[in-house]
Write a structure and sequence with these properties.
75% of the residues lie in helices and 0% in strands. The chain contains three helices and no strands. α1 runs parallel beside α3. It is rod-shaped.
């Protein structure tokens, strides 16, 4: 995960900034997909175990902990996506024009691309949001891994209780 990039004045071109933001967004998507796979496996295992019968008392005591970790991971993944969509909507709403002057279309109501100062400011906002989304999606993966470990403990507790 790329987290050390700090653009400085006039050291990075707009294409570089946009490239870094796009890379971070791709990594966010990958991290969110990994978290979703972990969570889907935990959910399927938990539901199938509960469908087989009520587990023992120890397993029932661990179930809220498992559910809490699951919800935390899912909320980080959702927050990552919502943050990105929100920032993209804000940029589009504030500017009403493409961020990149090389875009092959002209948006409705605008005949020109953004001037350099506004474009650079909006690109930096996008990069900042991409960093935030990267952190949120990484937290989703970390919590999904913790949820998987808790699921293993929960399964062991259910098996030891004779369920």
């Amino acid at each position: 995960m790329v987290t050390s990039f700090r653009p400085g004045p006039d050291r990075e071109t707009p294409e570089d900034i946009l490239g870094h933001a796009c890379t971070l967004v791709r990594l966010c998507g990958r991290d969110s997909a990994i978290a979703a796979v972990f969570l889907a496996l935990v959910l399927a295992g938990t539901v199938s175990r509960l469908a087989a019968g009520v587990p023992g008392l120890a397993a029932l005591a661990l179930l809220p902990v498992l559910a809490t970790a699951f919800v935390i991971s899912a909320s980080y993944a959702v927050r990552s996506r919502r943050t990105l969509v929100s920032v993209l909507a804000e940029v589009r709403g504030r500017t009403g024009s493409p961020v990149d002057p090389g875009v092959p279309w002209t948006p409705f109501g605008s005949a020109v691309a953004l001037d350099d100062r506004v474009r650079d400011g909006e690109l930096r906002r996008l990069l900042s949001a991409a960093h935030r989304c990267g952190e949120l999606s990484w937290q989703a993966v970390a919590w999904a891994a913790a949820t998987s470990v808790l699921f293993l403990f929960w399964t062991l507790a259910a098996a030891m209780a004779g369920g």
